[in-house]
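SUBJECT: protein chain
CONTENTS: sequence, structure tokens:
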Amino acid sequence: MVNTILPLLALLVVLSRQIEATDRPNIVLIVADDYGFHDIGYHGSKIKTPTLDKLAGEGVKLEKYYVQPICTPTRSQLMTGRYQIHTGLQHGVIRPDVPNGLPLDEVTLPQKLKEYGYATHMVGKWHLGFYTEACVPNKRGFDSFFGYYIGAEDYYTHIREGGYDLRENYKVATEYNNTYSTVLFAAKANAVINAHNKSQSLFLYIPFQAVHAPLEVPASYVEPYKSIYPNDTSRQIYAGMVTCMDEAIGNITTTLKTKGLYDNTVIIFSTDNGGQVRAGANNWPLRGWKGTLWEGGVHAVGFVHSPLLPKQVQGTINNELIHVSDWFPTIVEGLAQGDINGTKPLDGYNVWPCISKNDASPRKEILHNIDPLTIIHEGKQWQNSSFDVRINAALRSGDWKILTGVKGSVDWVVPPDSGITPIQPVVVKNQVLFLFNVTADPSEHDDMSGKYPKVVDMMLEKLASYNKTAVPCKFPAPDPSSDPKLHGGVWGPWR
């Protein structure tokens, strides 16, 4: 009898979750790549972003929202809700020739949503490993996948470093050569929406390639910016890429409405890191850029748009502390009405009450990173420190932010053709530790480490405590067996 009852109970749980799934909102999670903090209309940019401005303006703008400074770490935290020090991805990105990936024992966001009856689809850039088939999106919780395993491909040929990289599920999708990826990804996202059975809740993850280098876009998108940025060709092309992405997101939103899904959909928009100033982007007035732990590398554009949001928060600005790792519990608990049972301990928080009700954020700190493989050996040590300040790391706690293992020469890049006089940082030889009150000084102008040494000590103790929880950093050497020449000119699993 017991042997009969237990399977029946398990079946009832599954069925109840499937039945309830129709009452759960659809979730469309959009990620822009290397998108600068300044480069959206409502941050004062000259770049035209009417769709994003409208969606954000009718939703909740997240103005104290943070991500990681580079691609893989942000995506890993988005998919797991866990800091990169807890997944071994503290250093760099996963390059195409490296046998590395998001650890297979991590529960991913789509895997968790499938427990609650969601259909899970992905269109865009993965960048969380593919050296073995167990790492690819279809094996990590997505019902379907169309896009890139890596990143930085040519937007038209979809080739990087001699290898073709475009898949439809497991199949190499060679028929899309000479199709611009932003337009292609929008079309594929629309196809997913149009094919979706409305009796089931939808999770659609759309991490665009745009606006990552290489700088490429159809000429018609560049033309309007030649007069706006006459002295900066890179900025012209980048601006066109942003506008093309904005148009693509508009097309996806229209399809949601046409299909009848929009009224029960939550749209989340996020960047993956700060803009790359050497490739047309701008993060003004923040200091730094992609790849740095300064605000320009981690303070992100983000918003939530949905007719499901209470009227009192629609069209508002949220200034509560939110981090990319918070999306996992926010989506699972706050939106899907599920639980986080079965995951490893999360570093993220459910911030849906914060977004939807304007409650205080449960988050008081953000560990931006501790990278044990990036060290400034000539850096000046901090006396009696519990943490080696030559190691590249950063922590936000309350109003305070500490950076270690960084150089003070990182500056503020003004918007092109703005007429603003560039600011030059004060550089002290071998100084690698900086302390800022980022509430009072969000652009990180005034280093307070000399004035508040006790705050420095407190922040270093916190870093040391976090570091004790870190798993070993996994950053293997390139594997020659990955060479696309050995696999028909295609990037794909090789082990």
Remarks:
- The two ends are 45 Å apart (CA to CA).
